[in-house]
Amino acid sequence: MRHQTGRSEEELSSLWGVSRNTIRAAITEYSGLSPSSGLVDITLGPDNNLWVTCSGNHMVARITPAGDIKTFPTPDVQPFSITSGKDGNLWFTDVGNARIVRMTPKGEISYFVPPAPKSHPGAIASGMDGNIWFCEPEKKKIGRINLKKLEAQQ
To answer: What is the pLDDT of residues 83-97, one digit of tens each?
Structure first.
């Protein structure tokens, strides 16, 4: 293939010291969750397993490196975005009830309500400061959960 300069890729590579690498990777798909589970988000957990939010089935699923899947029902929660906290827990947004949920790797749940009422938090992330940060798109705000005080702030 010729570049617009009229030179071949090999000539350009030797001239500029640049090369093109093609990455080939095997893709493995895991089954075990129903098509109606409503997969939304995925994160690496504090236990080195993958954790997936399933908004359609109101649950969170853990996938081990071996591909074993265990589900954790969250009947009164509609999980959306998920992150792993520096406190060793999983944190996810509950879009159906406008709150933040903390879940231990064993499945124990506690709730945090953002200061802005009915803000319906969306995306969530673990910050460099060790706190949990989340977006409140309906209120056009960003909130955080201070892990030292265990309180939601804006």
So the answer is: 999 999 999 999 889
Burial 64-92 (b: 16+ CB within 10 A, else e): eeeeeeebbebeebbbbbbbbbebebbbb
Pair type for strands 69-73 and 79-84: unpaired
Backbone angles phi, psi at 126, to 5 degrees: -90, 125
In the CATH scheme, what is the homologous superfamily, with its name and number, of domain 32-153?
A: YVTN repeat-like/Quinoprotein amine dehydrogenase (2.130.10.10)
Distance of CA 89 to the CA centre of its chain: 13
Three-class SS state of 89 = coil
Round to whole Å and give the CA distance between 55 and 132.
20
The values of phi and psi at residue 144, to 5°, are -145, 155
* Distance from the first to the final alpha carbon of the chain: 54
Query: Do 2 and 11 touch, CB atoms closer than 8 A?
Result: no
Widest CA span in the chain: 63
The model's pTM is 0.80
d(CA 84, CA 126): 7
Centre a 10 Å sphere on the Cβ of residue 18 and count the other Cβ atoms it contains: 9
